[in-house]
Structures are given as C-alpha cells and as structure tokens.
Amino acid sequence: MMVLFPYSDTWKIWFERLKAVYQAHLQDNVLSIEHVGSTSVPGMMAKAIIDIDIVIENRELLPKIIQLLAEIGYQYMGDNGIKDREAFKPIDEYAPYDQLATKWLAHHLYVCPQDSQELYRHIFFRDFLLKHPSAREKYNQIKLQIINEIGNEDRKLYQAYKDKLATDFINQIIEQGKI
Q1: Cα–Cα distance for residue pair 118/112, rounded to 1 Å
Q2: Fold of the 10-121 domain
Q3: What is the tens place of the pLDDT at every residue in 89-134?
Q4: Which residue ranges does the chain devote to CATH 3.30.460.10?
C-alpha cells in the first residue's frame, strides 16, 4: 500500500541518527552526507522513507565504501540505471548496525561522487523546494493527483506515474538553475 504522510519533524531526527552512524563508520572516506527527497523539505508530503546521498570524492573510493557499508548491513545494488548514483539496500531493518540494535525507519541509501549529475539534481531540487513554497505546493499537488488517479494500492505504479508526471516539473526547475 502506498501512503503519503504530511511532513514530520521526526524525519529530520531519523536522518541525523542515520548520518551519525554513517559518519562514525565511514569517517574521512566521505565528503558529506545529504538528506534529500521529500522527507528533507518541511511542508512536503512523503512516503516516510528517508532518502540519503553519501558524497564521495571520486569513483575510485567506491570499492572501499561498498566494503564499509557491507560491514554495517548494506548490500550493494549497482547504479540501477542511473549514472553516478550507486544504490545500497539494508539487509534487514537493523541496518545500519549500531550499538543499540536500532530498528530504523525505512530509508534509501545512495553513494555519489561529488561531480555526479544526479547528486546535483537531488540537492538543487531539495534546496529549490526549501526556498519556494509555491513549488512545494505544486509538487504536493502532483503527488495527490497521482493518488487520486491510481489509488494507493500499488507503490510501483505510483512511482511510475510520479516519474512520468513529475519529471517535467523537476526538469523545468533544474533548467532554471542552470541559467
């Protein structure tokens, strides 16, 4: 079932807790850890799944990052067809493993080199939505339109519709930023 939730301040708290575990384990192998996606933007409706981009200096560091993330419970999934955005899947609800055996909120974890176009898109779109309430509202309307059209029973169908309907909107915003 696909459910959109109103923004919750707890999403930021969950991100900060996840970030602390990554920073402690990955240490100086990363440049930054970014909270992206709708859960990073107050006022946005979201699926309550935290999206995280770990930024590395270059692709040469990827094998080491794959190993380090495996140590705390992540399986490397490849780029899933998106250049320079490597996906990692928690092998269970306790990944990343910490000393408290925390049962984590659902999250998507990606590793991107600092010059990744997908990383740029994630950060630019997040920052644009943070600064422009009308864009947040429009993006929320797109999401609600999809739910109204297809219902909330099929998450994959929702994602396919969102990719189709939201892509033009997102691309227009990204193009504005390149001017």
Answers
A1: 8
A2: Beta Polymerase; domain 2 (3.30.460)
A3: 999 999 999 999 999 999 999 999 999 999 999 999 999 999 999 9
A4: 10-121
